[in-house]
Amino acid sequence: MARAWFPRAALAALLLTTAACADDEPLVAPAPTLEPFLRQTLTWESCENYPGGAGLSAESIECARVTVPLDYADPVGETARIAISRLRARGERVAAILTNPGGPGGPGLDMPRMLAKTPLAERFDVIGMDVRGLGASTPLVRCPSAEETRTEQLILGVGHTFGEVDQLEEEAEDYAVSCAAGSGRKLLSHVGTVDVARDLDVIRTVLGEQKLTYFGGSYGTRLGSTFAEMFPDRVRAMVLDGSHRSGGRHG
């Protein structure tokens, strides 16, 4: 049988062409990850310069800020800074417990002070937080104050008489538009429960906790249950004092 023959010049040309094609293939950049946020080091300091933090340092509570993505789908984009507070365990430490007072949107830096005299503070570092968009966290959601709203109602001669449903709906819409104008739509679209649950996971990691220990009051129940649904293998223990349903779409 005759042996197959292939000209050396043709073989060399084929190899060069293949290599050139391989070089021309676009390189796929690795997807951005949260690793830089998870590796950050916290700087604990006095709470006196944190909005809402007056008097906390006198009670041995310290504060810090954790940097997180504004939009978790775009980790290399804009960031937010979440203000947290810490009261170290008085006795033998078990873990850090993150807390949320509810609201939604209640400021939480003073939660360690509220829990300071409970048995919880004996064995746990109590962590408070101002969730994204409020308090000492930045950027801030900026809406008309209650005083500004009352003043506008007086000027326009409107009130909240029972049955004026159309008027109430219009006022609510105007208020939402004012919030969007003051805060920016991008920020408002990323201050929901799911975003805050993701912030909890970053804070947990930065604090060095393998799993989340959490206490949620009122609407904080929704936040805790949302975290548990998203990260079921990252929960150590939770105390949820409400009965908010967490199924369906989170906002």
List keywords for this structure.
17% strand, 6 strands, single chain
Question: What is the share of helical residues?
Answer: 25-40%
Structural class from helices and strands? alpha/beta
Query: Unreliable stretches, pLDDT < 50, 5 or more residues?
Result: 1-6, 8-23, 245-251
Mean pLDDT equals: 83
Cα gyration radius (Å)? 26 Å
* Main beta sheet: 6 strands, mixed
Could you characterize what this model shows?
The chain has 251 residues and is an alpha/beta fold. 35% of the residues lie in helices and 17% in strands. It has 9 helices and 6 strands; from the N terminus they run ααβββααβααααβαβ. Strands 1-2-4-3-5-6 form a 6-stranded mixed β-sheet. Helix 8 packs across helix 9. The protein is globular and about 55 Å long. The protein starts with 7 loop residues before the first helix and ends in an 11-residue tail after the last strand.
Task: Set out the fold topology.
Layout: H1 8-24, H2 35-38, E1 61-69, E2 79-87, E3 95-100, H3 111-114, H4 120-123, E4 124-130, H5 146-156, H6 165-183, H7 185-188, H8 193-206, E5 212-216, H9 220-230, E6 235-240
Parallel strand pairs: 3-4, 3-5, 5-6
Antiparallel strand pairs: 1-2, 2-4
Helix pairs in contact: 8-9
Condensed summary:
The protein is built from 9 helices and 6 strands, in the order ααβββααβααααβαβ. By secondary structure, it is an alpha/beta fold. It has a 6-stranded mixed β-sheet with strand order 1-2-4-3-5-6.
